[in-house]
Amino acid sequence: MSFPQALRERRRHRRLSQLELALRAGTTQRHVSFLESGRSEPGRAMVVRLAESLELPLRERNDLLTSAGYAPVYPRTSLDDPALSAVRTAIEHVLDAHDPYPAIVVDRHGDLVTANAAFDVLTEGMAPELLEPPVNAYRIALHPDGLAPRVANFADWARHVLDGLRNVLDRDPDERLAALHAELTGYVGPRTGPPGALGFAVPLQLRTPDGELRLMTTMTTFATATDVTVAELRLEAFLPVDEATAALLAKRAAARPPTAGPPTAGPPAAGASAGVRDR
């Protein structure tokens, strides 16, 4: 994709006028217009400013630079690189701190990177093939052979998951994510209520042999990442809504063998970061 086309599509996708983008980037509407028409060639610093003003993910910032003929700025480093031992340690600490409550780390596509031992409460009874790497968190949440049969409020929970994936797609119109959304929609069926009626407060009501768990979720991302893959990592924690759920999860943890670890894991991710942000 040429730079003029890439800039124009990203600006329109974010519903910004040329004037709004120009004000954000500290330039003029005329200059933005010339860049989008190809009448002006952008300098590297201008491309970076435009990418920041559009609040593009690091992957798209690299793509915009490449389309303008410049080398990517943000690296992609394997998470198992020795230089990123501090990042791995931070992830492990956060996951361990959430025990006895389930917590996972997923990548851009929702593929599982790692999980804590408590995650086994979600994977019990699933079809083995769904737990073969790469394990996709979206798929196991809604697949008929995954979590779905054990979710007491499946209709509401499924819409919550699909709406969350749609929000990700709005920010990152990726073909694989779009195909995944279409697949999951097939499992759920047509929407029966008005869009947005449920809001964000949809707990997961999960049936287990010990009783029903009521779990809410929280998402954590790396806030100051300068590496593409770590910027795309998300940590999702499942927290108890009530004391009964907390007690059941604590009981499971106490009965867990001391050497028990994460029930499954996906391929290693990549990246580097200096902090995290909860949202």
From TrEMBL:
SUPFAM superfamilies: lambda repressor-like DNA-binding domains. InterPro entries: Cro/C1-type_HTH, Lambda_DNA-bd_dom_sf, MLTR_LBD. Residues 252-279 are annotated as: Disordered. Residues 7-61 form the HTH cro/C1-type domain. It comes from the Bacteria. Residues 267-279 have a biased composition (Low complexity). This is Helix-turn-helix transcriptional regulator. It comes from Actinomadura nitritigenes.
